[in-house]
Amino acid sequence: MDAAALSKYIDHTILTPTATDADVAALCAVANRFEVIAICVSPSRLPLAAGLLDDGIGIATVCGFPSGSHRPAAKAAEAARSIDEGANEIDMVLDLGLVKAGDWAGVAADIAAVRDAVDAPHALKVIIESAALTDTEIVACCEAAEASGADFVKTSTGFHPAGGASLDAVRLMADTVGGRLGVKASGGIRDRAAALAMIEAGATRIGASATEAILTGG
After folding, report:
1. Which of the four, 1, 27, 110, 181, has the lowest number of CB atoms within 10 Å?
2. Is 55 a catalytic residue?
3. Domain containing residue 131: CATH number
4. Known catalytic residue: 154?
């Protein structure tokens, strides 16, 4: 896969709490240079990013980030405002406490609240923190995401101490959603080989901050 093709998998990302307007501007410049599929920034940076991107590059942001322990109504309100401010993709974090408690009705309601605030064609991605879950929990989270109308399942925030994306988790997620949803691998993907391995495992998106290194073979 050449760089031009690989760029269409990448959500070029900056979500560090210390990111400045200058950092977001630099992110957008790299996104424009490589013509990635989308960027992913914090909600407060949306108006800036929207004014700096070339046509055809999507804008993703996060909600309930990074813990997921926000009330569903708060996540929904955050997502709705983000859409109003230029986002066309929302990456929401599940409430992992509900997952660990086995409260699958609560998990589904959490996702559905944000889905109601994010109308098509805006995409909803559900971050499940796969490194913190058992295989059974990963499967159940993917099933809840699909049943609640999500467009993607996503491995990780990149901030959980359990770690980021793994090939095994991506394979399991891809097998579970069976092509009906996208699969975004995110967290710890820093070079071309790792990105290609995730795609081979079933990822349809790659969330990464090391986009330039990935696309230039670093």
Report:
1. 1
2. no
3. 3.20.20.70
4. yes
Catalytic residue among 95, 110, 151, 184: 184
Three-state secondary structure of 142-186 = HHHHHHCCCCEEECCCCCCCCCCCCHHHHHHHHHHHCCCCEEEEE
Q: Which of 91, 95, 110, 151 is an active site residue?
A: 91
Domain range enclosing 38? 3-215
Distances (CA, A) of 95 to 63, 75, 87, 207, 213: 11, 11, 22, 20, 33
Active-site residue, 100 included: no
* pLDDT by 10s per residue, the chain, length 218: 999 999 999 999 999 999 999 999 999 999 999 999 999 999 999 999 989 999 999 999 999 999 999 999 999 999 999 999 999 999 999 999 999 999 999 999 999 999 999 998 999 999 999 999 999 999 999 999 999 999 999 999 999 999 999 999 999 999 999 999 999 999 999 999 999 999 999 999 999 999 999 999 85
Helices 167-177 + 135-147 axis angle, to 10: 40
Other beta carbons within 10 angstroms of residue 99's beta carbon come to 24
- Classify strands 58-63 and 89-93 as parallel, antiparallel or unpaired: parallel
